[in-house]
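User: Quick sanity check before I run a bigger batch. Here is a single chain. Can you write out its predicted 3D structure?
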Amino acid sequence: MVTQGRPPSDSKIDLPLGRVPGTNTNCWKAEEVLAMIEHCRSQEQLSWLGKVIRALATTGTRISEIAGLRWSHIELQNWMVRLVDETSSGRQGGKGRRTL
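Assistant: Done. Predicted structure follows.
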């Protein structure tokens, strides 16, 4: 929104986020992600894993969300992935319903 002038750039809040205390969650550094992708590219049998790592790092999705993608979620022309929360979609029994 700031890049569009709403709100004005002088009202920007720069708040670094740290790790939540008591978790083992790790946030990879850009250099670490690039090293993992390059390692996977260097080994033909791991090329698929490099693509998964890239998808995870650039979309912020969870591994289960990447694994559960359907072709209807992918717009190849626009290089976009659309994830829709279907918890209130009205599907019966919740089977196959995506939750985010």
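The first helix runs from residue 30 to 41.

User: Great, the batch can go ahead then.
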